[in-house]
Amino acid sequence: MPLARSHILPEAIDRLMRERPNVLVRVVDGPYRDLLHGLRNGEIDMLIGALRDPAPIDDVEQIALFDDRLAIVARTGHPLFARKKIGEADLMAYPWVVSPPGAPTRDYFESMFPPAVRRKLPGLIETSSLIVVRGALLRSDRLTLISQHQIVTEQSLGLLAPLPVPTPGSARSIGLTIRRGWRPTATHELLMRHIRAACAELDGAAARAGRGAAA
Length: 215
What we know:
By secondary structure, the chain is α/β, with parallel strands linked by helices. Helices cover 41% and strands 19% of the residues. The radius of gyration is 18 Å and the shape is globular. The protein starts with a helix and ends with a helix.
């Protein structure tokens, strides 16, 4: 869940550790299916990231924190920023960095292009690492489909920017997934409070970046 890894959790955990410096926080990364299995078996306390609609199974509860929308992103100075109108053929002309199969972002990417068109795209890079995405975009004319919240820092530094291409139907909720009936400890409650605060700040920063790009 790249958005949580790169922005939300580091901020929330830092705030938690300031108040409770002796607490141990373990962050587990992996495919959603594996994380959900760990959650349901009590090995993981909570998941954070894109919520599934509908919920994947009845014994978990999803808590929405903010709404997100995908954007097609490139480095500033990318040739497509010079075009007045960007069509499918323009997007097909450049290589892409995409999420692995099974990720909601990958599903949306595949919905953008019919299978026959996808087979003609230049070589894809598949990764869930924001570091790899960032590096690939900055070093080339590659494109990616990503949450605009994930590039708040890069956009503020003038490194990456969303292309003026609509992404209808890409809205999704970001939030927490917990076991139904789970009773959090006081430390869990504190971490969840800091996660909510970090989400609110990130959402505000993304809105300001969007207004700045439109100005």
